[in-house]
Amino acid sequence: MNGLSTLIEKLSELNPEGDPHGSLDPMYTKWCRDFAARATAPEKPLTLEEWKAYREAGDLDGAYGRDPLTADAPDTFLFVLRDHLVFTAGSTSFVINVISSFLDDHVNPRTAERLP
Q1: Contacts of 98 (CB under 8 A, 6+ apart)
Q2: Which distant-in-sequence residues (6+ apart) come within 8 Å of 12 by Cβ?
Q3: How confident is the model at residue 36 (pLDDT cuts 50, 70, 90)?
Q4: Using alpha carbons only, how large is the chain's radius of gyration in Å?
Q5: At 90, is the pLDDT very low, low, confident or very high (cuts 50, 70, 90)?
Q6: What are φ and ψ of residue 113, in 5° steps?
Q7: Are 91 and 28 contacting, i.e. CB atoms less than 8 angstroms apart?
Q8: CA angle centred on 93, ends 33 and 108, rounded to 5°
Q9: Which residues contact 114 (CB under 8 A, 6 or more apart)?
Q10: Residue range of the domain that includes 73
């Protein structure tokens, strides 16, 4: 998952001026910085399976009420981040496409399951 961790670090460097109309909204660059800097595992990790269950149930309150920074792995964080970006239009489509291209080797976008 090293490539995904590197992607998260690079995303955290986008929009350093905090331009609300930049390629990635400041709130999301902060999430990337905070996730990249996280030293310990969260007390209640957000798993890909949990996120998938929220999506399948259409539970927007449950899904978007969970803190993405508690994601259990870089692929989970990026998957959740991408869903947030699509839902809130918090980035350019280019950023979403870049995240998707990295995730395609790790997570099936339709089923939200890790690939072997």
Answers
A1: 7
A2: 29, 30, 32, 33, 36
A3: very high
A4: 13
A5: confident
A6: -120, 145
A7: yes
A8: 80
A9: 48, 75, 106, 107, 108
A10: 2-114
Question: What is the reported pLDDT for 2?
Answer: 76
Cβ count near 45 (within 10 Å)? 12
Amino acid at position 25, single letter: D
Look at the chain and report how many structural domains it folds into.
Answer: 1
**At a CB cut-off of 8 Å and minimum separation 6, what does 69 contact?**
31, 34, 35, 38, 42, 77
Rounded to an integer, what distance in angstroms lies between the CA atom of residue 38 and that of residue 60? 26
The whole-angstrom separation of Cα 72 and Cα 101 is: 20
- Name which residue leads in pLDDT, 18 or 96: 96
Rounded distance between C-alpha atoms, residue 116 and residue 113, angstroms: 9
